[in-house]
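Entry 14. Structure prediction run on the chain below.
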Amino acid sequence: MAVIKSRPKVRLYLESEVRAGQEVVGRLEIVAKRDTPADFLEVRLTGRERLSSGRSAKERIVLDLRAVRAGPLTVRRGRSEIPLRFPIPADATPSYLGRTVRVEHTLLVHLSIPWWPDLRTAFGVTLLPPSREASAQPVLFRSAFEGPQRSAAYLEGSLASDEVEPGGRLVGAVALSNVAQNRYRAMRLRLSAVEHADVSSLGMHSAEAFRLDYGLPLKDPVEGQTIPFNIALPPHIAPSWTERTWRLTWQLDVRAEVRLRDDAVAHVPITILPRPAAGAARAPARVAPSVGSERLQLVWQAVAASEGLQLDGEALVGDRSGAQLSVRREQRDQGICLVGELRYRSLRLGLHIAPSSGLRLRRGRLRLGPRRRTHAVDGRDERAQAAGGLLQRALEPFDRVELEDDRALVVRHASGEDEKPLRAAVDALVVLAQEIQAVRLWIPAPEVFRDGLQSWSELALQLHAPLDLGDMSVEGTLDGASARAVGWREGGTQSSLELRPPLSLPEEASCVLGGATAMPGAVGGASELVSGLVAVGELVIAPAGITLTSREPLLDGMAALELLRRMGRVCEALREGGPYR
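Output returned:
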């Protein structure tokens, strides 16, 4: 043992954010110049709350967790790692640094070294509150409960949701009344946070902790005209929180300033949600209820009646040319847009049309919309490129397109508040549905299947189902069992056959066979049939059915039919040899 001891150095590494209700995962790295004996090693996570205002102050411990307790031990020379893994209660008070309230969390490391000063190290840790999704409840507000009064200044408005995530957007709209009687000069929005702390016996002390001011353009306002707003919130603002001794509340103040008269003001309580977990998808942007929504409802009802559609909530829905159609309004970065969606039977071309990122070369390109935005076209083979070209004219009216084999999502920069542009968007979506159906009828068989097309058409008749030429597939029934045959997949080098009987196969017969793989004993009398199938490709037997996969395309539909029938005989043989024979 060295006569002169030394204190090791400690580093802390956390694998993820520290959040209440979750488990902390990390490690301590200890670097020692020589072997160091220690009585014990202790790691604790503590939280301290301090409330202060003037001369009054209160403190309390809100969290004290022991993560590691070990010893006696010897810290070896060089680098040593000690894993950390401990849960944090879901009701733990999160970290917060405000004006009158401070909650700080610290990870304390204590290494007791006999006959030498102990190693004590503290690491500041930010404890986040548990994340949750927004309820997305729209909010309506107004400056006077009774509504517009005579010539008094008045405003009414709405928010898409009274719950917003940090880094999200506060989406809403405002409309003014009594415009002729008031000289409105400015529209101000103020988002503020207020701390309420139980500092003294005199009751809660309130102090503004945070403020954001915004202005909306207000030039020549029109009676009842919608003034939308879409405000980006900072990503690191503190969430709303309520504790036994303090709380943090948020409020939106909407003020219409009037010359020489009282302003119109509305106060709207809102909730700032905890910051979402790293990598979590944000809630989709929503549209605030329109001010004057009755007129908007009448417009959409009129378009639904004239186009033969139904108004389902806030969307027009119906069926056109074998596709399910819907049109709705969405709040996007460009403002309120009309979003159309089509869902239809898959073309099976691997078709993908989407805005081009410019980061990689694509096979084909289309320029769509009034701004001629470039869209990339991808697919399994040249037939997908040709299909994109055939659809270009039908896609021209849209500013953004995302089209797949079985779904099309299109965006048109129009608010949908007037009948004419709404009707034009619906008509353009109907034309697109018609063109997709026309492309389906145009799709030729892959080049390698041209000679075997007749046999695959006969297979489709035997399975009582249509033949999809995109990937030469048929999905139907054969002797009471569900059957599916796929002539080729991505790259044109793989095919598959599936047969799912109405009754489950024995569990003990489950296996994956291919090449020299030995057959399980449960296959029994079906071994000869199975051997013939394994010669074609990989065979998977499961209680739900049998799947045969080959690395070669199935060019002959009648050969595929014979293989499906052989798979059916294997199912019969397995059930006859099973426990329920």
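The chain has six helices and 38 strands.
Filed with the rest of this week's runs.
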